[in-house]
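User: Hi! I'm working on a homework problem where we have to compare a predicted structure to a textbook description. Could you give me the structure for the chain below?
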Amino acid sequence: MKKKAAAVVLASVMAASIVLGGCGNKASETGNTSGSVSASAEPTEYTAKEMLESTDYDVNDYVKLGKWKKIKVEVDKSYEMTDENIKEAGNNIISSTTYYEEVDDAAAEKDKVNIDFEGKMNGETFDNGSSSNYDLVLGSGSFIDGFESGLVGHKNGRYYDTFRNRCMFPILNLKGKPVAFGGRVMDDSKPKYLNSPETPIFNKRQLLFALYQALPEIRRTRQVIMVEGYMDAISLHAHGVTNAVASLGTAFTIEQARLLKRYADEVVFSYDMDAAGQNATRRALEIAGTTGLKMRVLHLSEGKDPDEFVNKYGGEAYKEAVAQAIPALDYLFKSLLETHDRTSLEGQHLILNDMFTVLSARGDSFEFNTYIQKMARVLKVDEGLVRNEARLFARKNNPRVYISQRVQNITESVEEDKEKEKIEALEKAIIRYCFITGRRPDGWEYLSTHTFSNAFCGRMYGILATLYAAGQPWTKENAQGLMEHEDMEYLAPLLVKEGRIAISPWEEYIRPLVILTLQKEYRVHTEKAAEMLRQGKKQEAAEEQLLCLKINRQIRNLRKG
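Assistant: Happy to help. Predicted structure tokens:
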């Protein structure tokens, strides 16, 4: 039933003028078929005399004065009569004399609604946490923050529960406190997901569903799995994949990416395989890339979403799929090749533009230049043209990204491949020497700043460094507990490989490796210095030239020793 608010002002004789504000906006009282309310008056000023004259009663007929002339009254002179005090007194009179009547309107602030509610803690109803047929004035703040938001909706003359016919999920903040609810339809109705209205404590762009529950595993693994829906996240957690979170019915936002960056180094996107899911993935990659997060994309078999997949194959199968997730840029490039016609000029332009957008946002110059080579080769486009387009794009969108104008010919590419093979062979020889002899070779300290070209060798160096710091011998048995399963498959043939072990690993392995690495670094800085000069950036060019001189000096000293 709906009621209209009206204020009944009790006439009083006062010595001073009183300013009475209007009774407010609306008030309503609703049940399961709720309604709303309305009545308001413009704020009006009344003097005591005007109030008396507006009544139909003669005060003298009801009030008889006694012997009052000799009565003494103590006055508190410290009390100050202010406009604020006067308005407060007037509002108190109004609130104490307000009644409600039915109106045909939507519920709003200051309306009275009639509700049934039940409060639970840890799944159990707590004392005094439930009530039926309870009158609640919206905006009164008498309940917890956010409780009043979105209780009643109004459409086509009918009133309804906001989350009717939906499965509801509590949305928790980082402290584990509920700040809103999400609702999912169990049929084909739209929208599929619906959240509570935003409040001062709930901003859906700045929170993620199940993040509170996922934080322990995210912190442990430094990895987070991003899914689309609440059911995906819930199913994954139920099957032991406890680092999964979901966006709150909106596209992945920059605020959410920055939030994840606080706790994780890598995000694996596991969105639905339909067109909408793939578009969302591409947008998410661009956003996450601006934060420096490492990104991979999980492509599930048979076009299944995470909920379907984990319920059919189990949590362990899903974890194995996560381990095989491909780097985000490789996924994006492959997806664009499938979406656009790579043989047409328009298709090539669309592919390059989308790739430039993501690469520019990530801001990694080495990564950008590497992908230019790959894109030119796959699209069968002149690399010089691609570099020129990339340079113009970066200049406009992210000037901090350096795009080299040097185009590699086939001979140069072959020579670099040979150089890479030499580096990887030396890296494997060092790891083999350490495991077979169990000794720390001379020059071991040089490897602490070396970026291993072979990923397996890099992982083995990290394990050996860990064992050395713990004072444990370099044995296969000690290392096995720190290895990934596939690493044993790589290590076994390396140890049984025929061939001599170096008498001086410094002379035969480490020094040549360091020299090759420095030579490679020298070329990069030389090219960069030349490019800076072509652009007229003399200061930047001078800095690159100084680095070249320093590197050249290191190479000479190593060759002497």
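For your comparison, note the following. The longest strand covers residues 124-137. The CA atoms of residues 529 and 544 lie 5 Å apart. Good luck with the assignment!
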